[in-house]
Amino acid sequence: MSSSPKIRIAVIGATGSVGGAVLDICKRFPESFDVVALAAQSNQDKLFSLASVHNPKKLCLTKPISGKFKTEGYDCLTGTDALCEIASDPDVDHVVFASSGVSAIKALQTALKEDKDVSLANKESIVVAGPWVMPLVKRKDQLRPVDSEHSAIWQCLREDHKREIAKIWLTASGGPFRDHTAEMLEKVTPEETLSHPVWKMGAKITVDSATLMNKGIECIEAMQLFGLPADKVGALIHPKSQVHGAVLFIDGTMKMLVSQPDMRLPAAAALAWPERLDLVASGLDFIRPEEWDLHFREIDGSLFPCFSIAFKAGQMGGAYPPLLVGADEAAVQSFLEGMIPFTSISKVIEETLAKSASASPETLDEAIELVSTGESIARELCKKWRHYF
Ligand code: NDP
Ligand code: MG
To answer: Yes or no: is domain 1-145 CATH 3.40.50.720?
Structure first.
């Protein structure tokens, strides 16, 4: 990168899978990035081990397990409010949101209000709080997507205008069960579900990738991030995960982003924008056609109903996206605990949305409350699963 001063980075969700990709980039380019704050939920050992590598000033655990979260040399913070303290710290230039769940929404708002650059991997926050977050974006590219498909679209759009977009597509590997039949899906176990063919990710998003809920949630994320109506957002199965996103412009031109499936690439694009880092990542070899497999197919909504449920929730807006996020959290947890089968995840979520449809939230707090409502209704349905479905 150019010889500008180091960018001072805070990473929320530092101990997770995306947090690891972001910190790997920071470690490789010490002349460009200075990690000044790291936050996680409760994984104290991993946080301290990351701190010994990156030497930040501030550490934060929002829910420390032991009462003794203190170490010489670091400013140790606890509680969810501390995330806002980090997001507004004058010694932070760029905040990375790589935590799971919805706890960092207020910190995301704070970072944008404080005019920080923001890299966003956490999709739940934009799905639940898009209407309260997006108006806070003051500058073009202040908010940079890290989710690989959205990063792809964002990179395709660098020089173009929203009014020139005819349609965008996100791709999906299709997960471990993309070639299963309905009968086979009835029997899949949590263990099989957690072995994703392409990406190594946290447990929740790995299950969401197998049900294709992740792609539905990502369509809502795209509607919010790029300000597009549902009919301009599509998704396709692309088993090789070489193309991550595509844009069709009104003149018929298409742009696609092709890269190896590696979360360090979108992380690097977001951290270093408007420059590119010299990652020496190999692209695809043009004269080795066996490396290329640009096959796409439609998502089968009857086999993967979570995709259609989520897409429809995005189309309807209002209370549906936050209810969906809460219901999915509870249904996935129950599946992983062996309480409900894989094919009931969609039934629980659909039933939760049908039972709890309510007026559109008028405030962010109401939207966040709807996540809890969706979660508790879905959890009750999971408990009664055998009698209910
Ligand atoms: P992981 O489960 O691997 O990691 C989650 C991280 O968030 C951990 O650092 C965890 O801390 C932290 N965390 C959870 N709750 C809180 C909280 N209340 N306060 C502070 N930190 C918290 O998840 P992933 O890295 O897979 O995913 C993170 C986010 O990025 C999700 O929104 C996911 O959808 C999105 N994403 C992930 C991709 C991937 O490749 N993994 C790709 C694109 C998007 P602790 O370890 O202490 O629990
Ligand atoms: Mg993604």
So the answer is: yes
Residues with CB under 5 A from ligand 2 (ion): 147-149
Q: What is the DSSP letter of 136?
A: G
How far, in Å, from the CA of 73 to the mean position of ligand 2? 36
Q: Do domains 1-145 and 317-389 have the same CATH topology?
A: no
- Domain borders along the chain are 1-145, 147-181+191-315, 317-389
Q: Environment class of residue 140 by beta-carbon count within 10 Å: exposed (0-12), middle (13-18) or buried (19+)? A: exposed
Scanning the structure block, which residue is given the tokens 């997960």? 175
pLDDT digits 0-9 by tens, 49-97: 999 999 999 999 999 997 778 877 899 999 999 999 999 999 999 999 9
What mean pLDDT, rounded, does the chain reach?
Answer: 95
CA atoms of 315 and 72, how far apart (whole Å): 50
Specify the residue with its C-alpha closest to ligand 1, atom 16: 41
- Atom from ligand 1 closest to the CA of residue 104: 19
Distance from Cα 51 to the centre of ligand 2, integer Å: 27
Measure the CA–CA gap between 41 and 166, rounded to whole angstroms. 40
* pLDDT (average), residues 112-140: 97
Fold of 317-389: Rna Polymerase Sigma Factor; Chain: A (1.10.1740)
Distances in Å between the Cα of 201 and the Cα atoms of 41, 194, 220, 319 are 17, 9, 20, 28
pLDDT category at 1 given cuts 50, 70, 90 is low
Would you say the pTM of this structure is higher than 0.90? yes
